[in-house]
Every structure is written in C-alpha cells, then in structure tokens.
Automatic annotation (TrEMBL):
Family annotation (Pfam families): Na_H_antiporter
Localisation per UniProt entry: Cell membrane
Topology in membrane: Multi-pass membrane protein
GO MF entries: antiporter activity
InterPro entries tied to this protein: Na/H_Antiport_NhaC-like_C, NhaC_Na-H+_Antiporter
One cellular component term from this protein's GO annotations in UniProt: plasma membrane
Name used for this protein in its record: Sodium:proton antiporter
Domain Na+/H+ antiporter NhaC-like C-terminal residues, every copy: 72-219
Keyword annotations from UniProtKB, A to Z: Antiport, Cell membrane, Membrane, Transmembrane, Transmembrane helix, Transport
Transmembrane segments: 17-36, 42-62, 83-106, 112-133, 207-230, 242-268, 289-309, 339-361, 382-403, 415-435
Entry keyword Transmembrane: yes
Lineage: Bacteria, Pseudomonadati, Pseudomonadota, Gammaproteobacteria, Chromatiales
Family as reported in the entry's similarity comment: Belongs to the NhaC Na(+)/H(+) (TC 2.A.35) antiporter family.
C-alpha cells in the first residue's frame, strides 16, 4: 500500500531537520561535557531556551527567503493559538503552585500523608505520598524538592538503601507528573492533540493505576522498616485547594477557571486557617509566573522552530518514515501507529531530557498519525504524555534524577536504576496497546 504521506514531503524536507539536530546536539552535547567535568546539574548549564537560539538562526538561513518573511514564519509558529493557550495555562499553574506553597498547602499535603503511613509501609507509603503530592502540584520537580529532605532523613532513620528510597520518590513523582491535570505535560499533550484534559485524565488513569498497583506491591515486598515515621503539625484545610482543583478539572470545568479558583482558594485558606498574608498574594503570583519562564519561552521557540520544519516538509517526512516502518508490523487496527506515537515521544525525550519539550516537538507528527489512523485525540495525548514521562523517569541526566542524586549523595544512575514505576508503566502501557480489543478509534468528526 503506498504511503499517503510520501507525496507531502517536498525535496529538501530532510534538510529542514538539521536545525532540530543542532538543538539536540547543543543541549545534549553540553550536558555530556559538563557531566564529564563533574559539574552539578550538568544538563542544565546550557538552558534549553538558550540552546535553541543557534538552531533558530540556522533554520532562518536554511529557509532561503527574505529575512522579514523568515521572521514571520518564526512568529507564526511561536504565536500558534495552541502554544499561546498552553503558555497562559503554564502561567496560571505556576501561580497556583506558588500561592499554595506560600500558604502552607505543600507542607500540609506532605505531612497529611506522613501522618497516616504505618512504619512497616514506609516504602509504599512514601510512593503514595509522592504520587498524591505530584498529582496535586502538577510537578515532579516540586514534589522532589518538597519531599527529598524528608525522605533522606527517613532513609537514615529506617536504615534503608538511599538509592531505593530515591527511586521510590522518583517513581511517585513521575506518577503525578504524568497524571496531574495541571502538569506541563498534560497541558502540552492535550493542546497539541486537541483533547480535553478531563478525557486525557480518564484515559491515563486506566493505565497509570494498574502500574501503580503493581509498583505498590513490589515496594511492599521490599519494605522492612520498623522505625516510626514522624509528621509535623499540619491542618487538613491546606489540602482542600488541591482536592478542589482535581475534582473540578475531572468534572470538565474550563482549566482557566479551575486554576483561578485554585489560586483564590489557596490564598483564602492560608489567610483564614494559617498565617498567610493576602497582601503578599500579588508577589507570590508573580513568583509563580517567573518559575515557569523557562518552559514558557522554550515552548514558544520550539513551536517557532517546528513551523520552519513543518513548512519545508520535515514533519511530513518524519510521519511518512514512521508510517512506513509501522506498516511492516502485522498488528490489528491502529496498534502499530499507537506504538509509533509512543516510540516517538520516548525517543524525543531521550534526546531532550525534558518531557514537556519532547511532547511539543513530537506533537504535530503524533497528531498526523492519529488523524490518518483514526486514533482518538485523548488516546494520542495519553500516549505522548505516558511515554515521555517514562523516558524522563529513566534518563540519568534528567532534572529529577540529578536533583535526587544530589539530595541523597548518590549517582543519578543509581537513582534511575530503582525507578520501578517507570519500568512497570512501560510494560503495562505497551501491553495495553497490544492487547486491548478497542484500539482507541474514534469516528471521523471527533478528529476535526
């Protein structure tokens, strides 16, 4: 059967991918160099939104058009309505996280979990706490930053292998990073695929929960600690804003309204039940905006680079190659194409070590494959998010592994070697693609 995408790739389509290769080379190469020099957070010494500038310059040069016209292409890509919407959601999510932290919500969520964990269930309990906190906060890095100091003390107190405890924390953090309604990856995957956040959540949880259950069973078998788990004083009211936004988002309320309500609720509960000063609300919101500055800029610039690749046929060429490969797999329905979307997200993140950026980069190709093979937007969004997060939880040069390695005083390689949830999720997600009778198909109108 002829490839329907091959005719869409003009001569020189492969050349349009060179700037993307340069971006990956600069980002990955600089990280490897600094790691060889034993520099902490080696892969973040050259930030992504700076590393992409030379790639954009090369893309403009390769475009072979007047400078003003090339700049218009860049602006068109950066100003894509999906990208701008995504960036506005980033701002509100950052503001909510900042206000919730300042008003004591994070501490309340952490200590609420610690207060109900039996000593003999230390490892599965820590996994559950990390999973709940990351699902509420929408960030694996924020979860690790909040829990790592507690987890290191628990590892010493209970005489547990530090790498094992770090792996438990990483596993729980990646669970929420993938599943949370307000995580960067959920925002990116749903916007690029045209899916509703609530639909993607429902699709994801069917895969994430079985994997989490198997992970809990494994950690229960590995847990042998008997030391008591101490929790600081906390108020259950601090957990309410997190619970509220999760419930409202799953109910399908507009994400902008959900996040705005979350900010208001976090501020009000802090002022009523804690010592949070409403006068500092504006400053905390601004701090939240600043915290997402890097991903905000990088998402826009990556979209600008993608526009050059798209206009010159690079994305169609990639989609065609993937379709040619998956067409050789003797699988029923569109399962081969679902595996292709999964592999695309996984491999993109191996190069970038940033699951949000990997999703943005591979989003257009994934959407093309989904539309060509009647894969529903919620399924393609779920696959992108799941497999990018799996990859992020397994790369030793990712921010999560680096932070945990520094916190526990161990190698990042040791951290990811105990990332059991990501390994189990890889097996569960791949198995569901292959074994599920319904292959995520959807009638044509939903794809419009």
């Amino acid at each position: 059967m002829p490839n329907p995408l091959s005719s869409l790739s003009p001569p020189g389509a492969k050349r349009s991918l060179i700037p993307l290769g340069l971006f990956v080379l600069l980002f990955l190469g600089s990280g490897l160099y600094f790691q060889a020099q034993n520099v902490e957070y080696a892969f973040y010494q050259l930030p992504g939104h700076v590393a992409i500038i030379p790639a954009l310059m090369l893309a403009i040069w390769l475009h072979r058009a007047p400078l003003q016209q090339s700049i218009e292409v860049l602006v068109k890509g950066a100003g894509n309505h999906n990208i701008i919407t995504m960036c506005l959601i980033y701002l509100l999510a950052g503001a909510f996280a900042s206000v919730a932290t300042a008003s004591g919500g994070v501490d309340a969520a952490v200590n609420a979990g610690l207060s109900i964990v039996p000593a003999a269930w230390l490892l599965p309990g820590l996994f559950i706490i990390a999973a709940l906190v990351s699902t509420a906060m929408g960030t694996s890095m924020g979860t690790i930053g909040a829990l790592a100091p507690i987890a290191t003390g628990l590892a010493t107190q209970a005489n547990l292998e530090p790498a094992l405890v770090a792996g438990v924390l990483l596993s729980g953090a990646m669970f929420g990073d993938n599943l949370s309604i307000i995580s960067d990856t959920t925002i990116a995957s749903t916007r690029t695929q045209g899916a509703k956040m609530s639909d993607k959540f429902k699709e994801n949880i069917k895969i994430a929960l079985p994997a989490a259950g198997l992970t809990l069973l494994l950690y229960t078998l590995l847990s042998s600690a008997t030391a008591p788990v101490a929790a600081a004083d906390f108020s259950w009211t601090g957990v309410l804003p997190y619970a509220a936004i999760l419930v409202l988002a799953v109910m399908g309320l507009n994400v902008f309204v959900v996040l705005l309500l979350g900010i208001v609720l976090a501020a009000l509960q802090g002022s009523v039940f804690a010592d949070y000063q409403l006068a500092s609300l504006g400053k905390d919101i601004a701090t939240g905006f600043a915290s997402v500055q890097e991903i905000f800029l990088l998402a826009m610039l990556v979209s600008g680079l993608s526009e050059f690749i798209k206009q010159q046929g690079g994305l169609s060429w990639i989609a065609g190659k993937i379709q040619s490969f998956t067409g050789k797999l003797k699988l029923a329905g569109n399962k081969a194409q679902q595996l292709a979307i999964a592999a695309l997200a996984f491999s993109s993140n191996l190069c970038i070590a940033n699951n949000t950026v990997a999703i943005v980069l591979s989003g257009d190709v994934a959407k093309t494959l989904a539309q060509q093979h009647q894969i529903s937007p919620r399924r393609s969004a779920s696959l992108l998010d799941i497999f990018a997060c799996i990859s992020q939880g397994l790369v030793p040069y990712g921010a999560q592994a680096l932070l945990l390695g520094a916190s526990f005083g161990i190698s990042p390689w040791q951290v990811v070697s105990y990332s059991f949830y990501c390994l189990i999720l890889l097996l569960v997600a791949s198995g569901i693609i292959l074994l599920r009778r319904s292959a995520g198909t959807v009638p044509g109108p939903e794809l419009s």
